[in-house]
Amino acid sequence: MHYWNGTYYEGSGETFTLVNPATGERTGEYTLANAADVNDAVASAKAAYPAFKALTPGERAELMLALATQLEARADELAELESLQTGKSIRLAKEFDVPGSIDNAKFFAGSARQLTGLAAGTYWEKSTSMTRREPLGVVGSIAPWNYPLQMAAWKVFPAVAAGNTIVLKTSEMTPGTSLILAEAATAAGFAPGVINVIAGDGLEAGEALITHPDVVMSSFTGSTKVGRRIMELASAKGSRVHLELGGKAPLVVFDDADIEAAARGAVAGSLINSGQDCTAATRAIVAREHFEAFTDRVTELMNGVRVGTPTDPATDMGSLISLTHRSRVAAMVDRAREAGATIHCGGEIPTSNHLGEALPGDTETTAYYAPTLISGIDTDSEVWREEIFGPVLVALAFDTDDEAIELANDTPYGLAASAWTTTTNRTLRAAADIEAGCVWINEHIPIVSDMPHGGYKASGFGKDMSQYSFDEYTQVKHVFIDQHEDPHHEWQDTVFTS
């Protein structure tokens, strides 16, 4: 259940059982990758690097386009597997995850041909200077379980478009679609060893990948805690790190906002992927005069969200990733309730879908959780400060614009945010003053391949997607060409005069 050097391999680690979190059914079993498997995968990538680096940008672009075609041909298969392994709705997988990943491949096919340095020029007498943008070598990337295919795309495509080879470690819970991506790359004409995928846990496979001496750059998406550990490991060998970490996105609703639009945006933005999204709206900061109307409308909309079997096209929201994670989300909501918070809706484990039909399995074997809205909390509350990573939105009222901005920034995170207003000045102020890598105005969630994605503060550094991502996967070289005809160069007299 691992892929390197253009073929599948069995792992050498412990046996792991795959479970569909929406049904509780066991869907497979495989052997996790260990340090020996990591070493073999990295060796494969290292061997493939010289020839792949030598390709022209146009040749790499053609491979990327061929890969996009391969993925398009398997789109239904990818969506079904993505839903099966994560519990997300098939509609989200088909309409968001898979098309977004394919678009990412096409974007980087074009961007591969735009990797240019500065124009040549004379900056020292009788010489010409120019810059070259070059790949790094073998990249080691770690992707999370919430968007397995998309996160693989965000890691793999800019890396190989720039001329690197890569070893991607997926979550042990969600290896399937990343393996198909690697297989599709071989079918598209990528040489064996350019794109390699292993599945394993963080302590065994992840740390072996980050610390491997032949891995020159590490990219990680996941929790801030693990991100700090990766920085520590990479610093020991002085290698480059790119981190996209946690989030606690504010959704600021000013007193001139369209409340219906804001409420709908809050529900979509907080419940996408069952709230298991680092950019999800988690803190609604609402003008006091609209607070009741906003929470009432959000409650109404959340109560209408169809929680159910992911394979049903009518389902809006599937399950969480696992029983363990569902227990964590539920415990945070329960502690808020015990502390006196108001639970407007949700705050419980559902047993039936929107039609009143029993959900598959039972509450002891499946990982469903109801869409939840909470208010009546303080800013030192756990649900205000910590990343819940579930379908939970916390709402708080504000009185002045200054207070709204202060509350938006009252978090160690800074990945994404949104502001809802019909005023130009407020739009510009929110865009400038909210401390986040992305600020949406009158919308929350859309992400496109052409624009950068990355965080401020404890949400990490570096960018995924867009041309900016190449800054993570390339290095810039200054080339100096001397044009003197006389072997004696005047500046040398400052060192010796004979």
TrEMBL record:
Entries under SUPFAM superfamilies matching the protein: ALDH-like
Active site annotation, chain numbering: 244
Keyword Oxidoreductase tagged: yes
Signal peptide from the UniProt entry: none
Superkingdom of this protein's organism: Bacteria
Assigned keywords, A-Z: Oxidoreductase
Pfam family, one: Aldedh
Domain Aldehyde dehydrogenase, first and last residues per copy: 10-479
InterPro entries for this protein: Ald_DH/histidinol_DH, Ald_DH_C, Ald_DH_CS_CYS, Ald_DH_CS_GLU, Ald_DH_N, Aldehyde_DH_dom
Transferase recorded as keyword: no
PANTHER family hit by this protein: ALDEHYDE DEHYDROGENASE-RELATED
Family listed: Belongs to the aldehyde dehydrogenase family.
UniProt-recorded name of the protein: Gamma-aminobutyraldehyde dehydrogenase
Taxonomic lineage of the native organism: Bacteria, Bacillati, Actinomycetota, Actinomycetes, Micrococcales
